[in-house]
Specification:
The complex is a heterodimer.
Chain A lengths: L1 H29 L5 E4 L11 H4 L25 H10 L3 E16 L2 E10 L1 H8 L5 E3 L4 H4 L3 E5 H6 L7 E5 L5 E10 L4 H5 L1 E5 H8 L8 E6 L5 H12 L2 E4 H4 L1 H39 L1 H9 L4 H35 L20 H27 L3 H5 L2
Chain B lengths: L3 E12 L5 E12 L3 E6 L5 H8 L7 E6 L2 E2 L5 H11 E4 L11 H12 L4 H14 L15 H13 L5 E5 L7 H16 L3 E6 L2 H5 L3 E6 L2 E2 L7
Parallel strand pairs in B: 3-8, 3-9, 6-7, 7-8
Antiparallel strand pairs in B: 1-2, 1-4, 4-5, 9-10
Helix pairs in contact in B: 3-4, 3-5, 4-5, 5-6
The chains are: A alpha+beta, B alpha/beta.
Pfam family, one (chain B): ABC_tran
Organism (chain B): Chitinophaga japonensis (Flexibacter japonensis)
Protein name (chain B): Lipoprotein-releasing system ATP-binding protein
């Protein structure tokens, strides 16, 4: 019985913890990855060239060009406002955030610090990633209220020794320079975001890059249903003719590690339950050996093999039920205990306790599996008991 | 002539351990309703084996057995169990009660299995049977706490609970002191007088002499033609 209890308790603990870890990692990733990301993935086509004409090669001569490079290429999404408006009408889309990003240099005395600067509609960005909850100082709306405001990761602000209200000078790839005032800092708990990313308003970014007001390089989309990202990304890519990536493709390793953790959980849990099952099997075998005489008496009085099976099966079922219920309770207490254990603190990690997920179906699954194991473990000895020849025992 | 409640024809039985050995040699017998029969013989002559065949517990034999007009030979295990439950009461040499239950519960068990009456009626019936054995004062004691003679009386009450057609007893006094043996043999005699059909296997010549008919067995054969005179 204790075997079943521990088996099921460990199953509950493991599955709750593993699912908790899965959810934590997924939440972390999704906190900075959009469900769908549309951008201009430039492909250069060198199949046709004007090189031949340029060198007057004629038909009989070959002109071989090593390492061709594009002369002029536009990275923006043409008709971006049209695409955004169209996406916003789509019923499965919750938020659409068009933005313009570029690697910029932050000046800190003589030091230049490279970080990704994104010109965004900060309200849309807030709807996508819940930015307001992750602000260390200031509010996302402050970006709109301040001329030349900038919001950056708290780590980047630390590195540059900036406090809200301070001014910072940025250099764009086009060598244009601009000064921004820090209005807020945020903390996502992910180094690349907290140390190498900053937000300005879309119009200021366009100004810094020297582009017009329709110049947008990327669109981020948040969906109502996360699991619809794959088909919708493909559909959007086809419709608008730009590269469209869903979050699962971007984070393929996350999915792989989720599958590995799930498999590990099930393998260990099922092993535990099988060991518990063998425990019951042994107990029932011992009980039947010690009750051989009684089984013979029952048979002599007119109890059939089926009745004997019923008796011993109900005994192992009772063991399974009581042990299983105790196991579910113990499993809940253990996983609750684990969820209260403080997690070692670190600069980047935002969790305070071990991640544990509480879900009803873990318990239903555990109970079902426990009952199934005990039923199987009880059935074999019970069948053996039913086959006992009463004459051999009664004769002594 | 009265109807035969039990009829056995040409029963042969073999043991295979340690080597093939014929225990019963074409034994035929018939028993009338209300008869009190004893089977006697030396150890190993096959008298207990014969009783187990007649009780339908042992099904591995040649020949045929009819009880109460039903041919029990070849019936499936489930039907035999039901048949035993309804028609046969069995008393063993070593009392064989379930020690975890009270005397009353032990007596009630076969009737609960039969399910002909509801539980209160069965309980009343079982109490009556115990009273008949003068065991009603011990009805609520655990059967493991009773003496050998008392346990055997409870076992007889249990054999009677479903009002069986035949009561079979394998050395019912074999394990008891003379006082208790006398009590048990008196009870069985009394039951025989109440028109029960009883077959006992015994070593005890005095006990056998008090039965209607003695069937002598030697080496797996009946000594005299076991047909009712």
């Amino acid at each position: 019985m204790l075997g079943v209890t521990f088996g099921i308790a460990m199953f509950i603990l493991m599955i709750s913890f593993m699912k908790g870890v899965n959810k934590l990692l997924q939440d972390l990733v999704l906190s900075t990855t959009p469900d769908i990301h549309i951008y201009n993935d430039f492909k250069t086509d060198y199949s046709a060239s004007i090189a031949g004409r340029y060198f007057n090669a004629g038909n009989r001569n070959w002109v071989i060009v090593h390492h061709p490079r594009p002369k002029q290429i536009s990275l923006n999404l043409r008709n971006a406002p049209g695409i955004v408006a169209d996406l916003r009408k789509h019923e499965e889309v919750v938020a659409v955030s068009p933005y313009l990003s570029a690697l910029t240099l932050f000046h800190y005395g003589p030091v230049q610090w490279a970080a990704n600067l994104e010109g965004v509609d900060i309200r849309e960005e807030d709807r996508l990633f819940g930015l307001a909850d992750k602000m260390v100082s200031g509010r996302p709306e402050d970006l709109l209220a301040t001329d030349n405001g900038i919001i950056m990761g708290y780590k980047l602000a630390e590195d540059l020794n900036l406090l809200p209200g301070d001014l910072v000078t940025l250099t764009a790839p086009s060598k244009a320079q601009m000064r921004f005032r820090v209005v807020g800092t945020y903390k996502f708990g992910i180094a690349t975001v907290d140390e190498y990313k900053a937000y300005v308003s879309l119009s200021k970014m366009q100004q810094l890059m020297g582009k017009n007001r329709d110049y947008i390089t990327d669109i981020r989309i948040k969906l109502k249903d996360l699991d619809r990202a794959v088909p919708l990304a493909a559909a959007f890519g086809k419709k608008y003719g730009y590269k469209s990536e869903d979050w699962e493709t971007v984070n393929a390793s996350l999915k792989a590690s989720n599958i590995i953790r799930d498999t590990l959980t099930y393998v260990v849990s099922i092993t535990l339950l099988i060991v518990a099952g063998f425990g019951i099997y042994n107990i029932m075998n011992m009980v039947i050996i010690s009750k051989m005489k009684d089984i013979a008496i029952l048979k002599a009085q007119g109890f059939a093999g089926r009745d004997i099976i019923q008796i011993f099966l109900s005994q192992s079922l009772i063991i399974g039920l009581i042990g299983g219920m105790a196991g579910l309770l113990l499993g809940f207490l253990l996983s609750y205990g684990l969820s209260r254990v403080p997690f070692p603190q670190d600069d980047f990690i935002i969790i305070t306790h071990f991640p544990v997920l509480f879900q009803g179906w873990f318990y239903i699954f555990g109970a079902l599996f426990g009952i199934l194991t005990t039923l199987l473990a009880g059935l074999l000895p019970a069948r053996k008991a039913a086959k006992i020849d009463p004459v051999a025992i009664l004769r002594g | 002539m009265q109807e035969a409640i039990l009829k056995a024809e040409k029963l042969s039985k073999y043991f295979y351990e340690p080597s093939r050995f014929q225990v019963l040699h074409e034994v035929s017998l018939s028993i009338q309703k209300g008869e009190f029969v004893s089977i006697m013989g030396k150890s190993g002559c096959g008298k207990s084996t014969l009783l187990y065949l007649l009780s339908t517990l042992d099904t591995d034999y040649e020949g045929t057995i009819d009880i109460h007009g039903v041919k029990v030979t070849g019936l499936p295990e489930k039907n035999l169990a039901r048949f035993r439950n309804e028609h046969i009461g069995f008393v063993f040499q070593f009392h064989f009660l379930l020690p975890e239950f009270t005397a009353l519960q032990n007596v009630m068990l076969p009737a609960l299995k039969l399910g002909r009456l509801d539980t209160p009626a069965i309980e009343a019936h079982a109490m009556e049977k115990l009273r008949q054995m003068e065991m009603h004062e011990h009805a609520h004691k655990l059967s493991g706490k009773l003496s050998g003679g008392q346990q055997q009386r409870v076992a007889i009450a249990r054999a009677l609970i479903n009002d069986p057609d035949i009561i079979m007893a394998d050395e019912p006094t074999g394990n008891l002191d003379s006082t208790n043996a006398a009590i048990i043999s008196n009870i069985l005699q009394e039951l025989a007088r109440q028109d029960n059909t009883i077959i006992i296997v015994t070593h005890d010549r005095d006990f056998a002499n008090r039965t209607d008919r003695i069937i002598e067995m030697v080496d797996g054969r009946l000594q005299e033609p076991a047909v009712h005179p």
